[in-house]
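Sample pair:
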Amino acid sequence: MKTTIQIPDDIWRKLNIEAAENHQKGFSGIVAEAVESYLKRKDRARHLNERRKRRQIAGELFGSLSSAEAVDELSNLRERRKQWHTNS
């Protein structure tokens, strides 16, 4: 897909040099690779942020169950996991 973007002159010159060194007519491939890399980094950062939030919530919940309740919940979880594996 074609689009128009504003690029400062100094970056435009560097992109043209890079493209020529890689025997490319233009720098669309370089720009597409840079945008893809940027989006992947943003996605990883979002994923890490979600993991941090889950850890924070887990930390805040730590100690909210008694030992007996924790043992019961762990036992229930293990049983559900066994059933899940046999049902798939």
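The helical segments are 9-21, 28-61, 67-87.
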